[in-house]
Amino acid sequence: MSIAEQFPYKIELHVHLDGAIRTETIVETAKRRNIHFPWETIEELKTHLVMSAPPYHLGALLEKFHTFMPVVAGDRDAIHQIAYEFCEDCKKHDVFYTEARYSPQLFANKMSDGSKPPYAHTEGDITPREVVNIICNAFEKGSQDFGVKVKSILCCVEHAPEWSNEVLELCKEFKPRGVVAIDIACGDLDPDVPHKELHTRAFQLAAQYGIHRTVHAGESGPAAGVRLALDEMHAERIGHGYKVVDDAELYERCRRENIHFEVCPLSSVKTGSVPDDLDKHPLHRFINDEVNFSINTDDPIVLDNDLTSDYEMVMKMGLDKEHVIATIFHAARSCFAPPEEKKQILAELVKVYGEKYMKM
Ligand code: NI
Asked: In angstroms, what is the span from residue 42 Cα to ligand 1's centroid?
């Protein structure tokens, strides 16, 4: 049985919509919009984007986004297409429930404070709010058409704390349309980032409003970022969080409080966030200590992965089929779907994999 066939129902909790755009959609969109783009074929662009050789670091991976985001930002049809195709790709890989995350500001061509849009070349009428509206429309249609459940997480951006309050407001407004949580992305949560109180405040209010919270922390930055995420931002899940194993007391606390870690195996290697020797990957500790974690792709466009290939990677690292299924159940229990929907997802998982994993 192939790896794909062994896991006919997958769940993904950590994937960036802008990191999961199809390469062909970027090439096509550049042509349609007459945007000068040095990579004319899918193969050329792929070769440029995919992180293929060390040394790996997070900054180099994030740099790649500057290549293609200007092609799609501020284009209504492209934004819709990307989100709709994302749903189709979920179906293709048997990902039946997922929470895709993105920063509304990075796709916009009109900023609410009148500043220059970060990626779009020309200004227009696509505000961050309109971005969320377009993507919710596409996720609703795509979920219906492909028989999957695709929710949204809206990201604050670490170096743009001035956007965080708007992100929070959008989370509130679009909660009825499948926006389930707030995140902070683009690099690691750095305890020393200037004006981080604007981020912190948005997360504290999110907790008050009943909006779920996940935070990128302890990926390439220190374990202290995980502590900050938990103490000051009320994070329920941690994006990556590998460095937590460097702080024994914090690690114990995360186990005790059943904090969920969104582990991205290939990404962790290609951002240089884990030791080169995969036997020392924190994933082994997580498995041995029964930590609550899931397996995720993060950014397929620059990593050239899918959920099956990440499952395959961890199986090569020594996890067996039961371990992987247990992580799918962890993902279901720690997902941000409303309680009724979560119950339904767990019931579907039990149908596919059996009752015993409910106890694991
Ligand atoms: Ni991420």
From this structure: 24
159 Cα to the center of ligand 1, angstroms? 15
195: left (phi over 0), alpha (psi -120 to 50) or beta: left
Segments of the chain assigned E as strands: 10-16, 95-102, 149-157, 179-185, 212-217, 237-240, 260-263, 293-295
From ligand 1's centre to the CA of 182, what distance in Å?
13
**DSSP for residue 258:** T
Size of the chain, expressed as the number of residues it contains: 360
Residues whose CB falls within 8 Å of the CB of residue 37, separated by 6 or more in sequence, listed in order: 27, 30, 71
Determine the distance separating the centroid of ligand 1 and the alpha carbon of 212, expressed in angstroms: 16
Place of tokens 């670091």: 57
CA distance 152 to 180: 6
187 has a pLDDT exceeding 90: no
Q: How many CA atoms lie within 13 A of 253 on its CB side?
A: 12
Asked about 219 being catalytic, the answer comes back as yes
pTM reported for the whole predicted model = 0.97
Task: Take residue 147 and report the two structure tokens written for it.
Answer: 């028989």
Kindly report, residue by residue over 253-283, the tens digit of the pLDDT: 999 999 999 999 999 999 999 998 999 999 9
Q: How many Cβ atoms from other residues are within 10 Å of residue 258's Cβ?
A: 13
Q: What is the mean pLDDT of residues 17-34?
A: 97
Percentage with pLDDT > 90 across the chain: 89
Interval between CA 239 and ligand 1 midpoint (Å): 6
Q: How much distance in Å is there from the Cα of 80 to the middle of ligand 1?
A: 21
**Pick among 3.40.1190.10, 3.40.50.1980, 3.40.630.10, 3.20.20.140: CATH of 3-359:** 3.20.20.140
Q: Are 181 and 213 in contact (CB under 8 A)?
A: yes
Write out pLDDT tens, residues 296-325.
999 999 999 999 999 999 999 999 999 999
Mean of pLDDT over the chain: 95
Catalytic residue among 130, 219, 236, 312: 219
- Is the CB of residue 187 less than 8 Å from the CB of residue 58? yes
- Cβ neighbours of residue 43 closer than 8 Å, sequence gap 6 or more: none
